[in-house]
Amino acid sequence: MIDGKKVLFSGMQATGNLTLGNYLGALKNWITLSDEYECFYSVVDMHSITVRQDPATLRKRARNLLTLYIAAGLDPEKNCIYYQSHVSGHAELAWILNCFTYMGELNRMTQFKDKSAKHADNINAGLFTYPVLMAADILLYQADVVPVGIDQMQHLELTRNIAERFNNIYGDVFTVPEAYIGKVGAKIMSLQEPSKKMSKSDENPNGSIYLMDDPDTIMRKCKRAVTDSEGCIRYSDEQPGIKNLLDIYSACTGKTPAEAVKEFEGKGYGELKPAVGEAVISVLKPLQDEFERLSKDKAYIDSIIKENADKANYYATKTLRKVQRKVGFPDRIR
Ligand code: ATP
Ligand code: LTN
Fold first, then answer.
1. What is the pLDDT of residues 177-196, one digit of tens each?
2. Do 274 and 222 meet the contact criterion of CB atoms below 8 Å apart?
3. Cα-flanking dihedrals φ and ψ of residue 2, to 5°?
4. Separation of 333 CA from ligand 1 center, angstroms?
5. Ligand 2 binding pocket includes 44 (Cβ within 6 Å)
């Protein structure tokens, strides 16, 4: 609890251009929840280097991502928006938690298996212990709730297990966090391969709508979305392409999938696809305009970076000192 409010933590990696999946699955829910909770939204740049990055590109993407959080509607005066690498407590707590996490647990993580298959030439220890750093992110702020897409559930379960294990030994040190998964948009699929999730690291750019895509590109990608030959619009697992388009439409318009199906009753794919395109454009256009405006205001963004890093450090250090005492590190001499 901070000032009588429950705490929320979430983060995104600055590894590529954000997709509509990232927005509908995560960022959009962050905004909905931001009034109710004391929120920490991190650009998790330390996680990004588990895969090789070009330094200048990473720096640029991290800044763009931080700006995008604000452009999407998170008020940086109320929400703590900061770079993970500016708070050394993340790495310090991660080290301690590494000593409370089993190799077997990390071996089971599907993200590790997927990423090591994809980057077979660089299966580094950081990629393996990635979930421990993520647990440290969350536990450092004593977060009650963590809004993420479904793909992160396994990491959240591990975080809860680590927290409970630690608490069983040392008493109530960590808040055990709950995942928050939104009702619509929790898993947006690729427009080209609707059995795969839409991902910013997908090699086929037509599978993903990027948040910075211009209206023509968005419309073109929606019109080319892979569907099926059934010809009728139902919300069913048998029609994954159509289901995905209905999910996108619902998440962008605030309608339920059932309402969306009703709206397109008796209509064809030729009507659904451009309607989805329009819905996406109307969500992304204001965000893009605000991003452009904010990007030009260097001094403002710099001040947010500085102030919020100080705030995050304050809360992080509080937890870290407590944990260090519990495990038996010597007190600091003042
Ligand atoms: P990468 O392709 O680099 O692994 P990613 O696109 O999966 O990245 P992350 O940075 O790992 O993105 O995820 C940021 C947030 O977006 C997480 O909360 C994740 O659950 C959510 N998310 C990612 N992809 C989707 C998707 N297709 N649908 C819904 N939520 C998603
Ligand atoms: N692993 C997450 C990003 C992430 C995160 C976090 C999300 C790192 N630390 C803490 C929520 C809370 C991802 O790949 N999407």
1. 999 988 777 789 999 999 99
2. yes
3. -125, 125
4. 43
5. yes
In tens, the pLDDT along 239-254 reads: 999 999 999 999 999 9
Q: What's the rounded Cα separation, in Å, for the pair 251 and 140? A: 31
Q: Name the pTM for this structure.
A: 0.92
User: How many whole angstroms separate alpha carbon 163 and alpha carbon 265?
Assistant: 49
HEC states along 51-79? CCCCHHHHHHHHHHHHHHHHHCCCCCCCC
- Catalytic hit among 6, 187, 200, 255: 200
Tally the residues of the chain.
334
CA distance 89 to 317: 6
Tokens found for residue 324: 């260090």
Active site residue 115: yes
Rg (CA), the chain: 21
126 burial type by CB count under 10 A (0-12 exposed, 13-18 middle, 19+ buried): middle
- Distance CA(19)–CA(209), nearest Å, equals 5
Give which of 52, 33, 30 is closest to 41, Cα–Cα.
30
